[in-house]
Structure formats: C-alpha cells, structure tokens
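Folding Task

Wanted — backbone structure
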Amino acid sequence: MQVIVNISLKEGVLDPQGRAIGRSLTDLGFQEVGEVRVGKRISLDIDETDPARAEQRVARMCETLLANTVIEDYEIEIAGENEA
C-alpha cells in the first residue's frame, strides 16, 4: 500500500528556507508570490492491506522518527483512498 506523509512547520514557527525562496522569487520578477513555506513529502510502501491500520502505523512512524512534532505537523494520505 502506498502512503504519502506531508510534513510542514507548525504555524508560527519561523521558516528561514521559505523566506529565502520567497525573496529569491521576488528578486527574479515573481512579485505575485507571498509567503513561502517549505516542507517534506515522504512516500512509503507499506506491507498492509487495511488502510486504517496502515494510517495508524504511519502515524506512529511520524511520532517516533519522521516528524519533529514539537515544531512540525504531518498529514497522512493513503493512495487510492479518495479515488472513487
């Protein structure tokens, strides 16, 4: 089962990399760009057939290793779950 984890800095946490990218885009002529926030996307292949169990296991992975939950939030997407 394919699982995607999107990790982003919590609201209020400074994002110097995002600020640098935003400033560079403005300098390159993209004045329409406002705030820029940088995050991570992690793709996992999980040996699990139950989407609820896969989400539970990946949440545990995030809490244990993948995300710094003091300053980061994460969202879990199960591939194919929203397709109908």
Q: What stands out?
A: Helices lie at 16-27, 51-66.
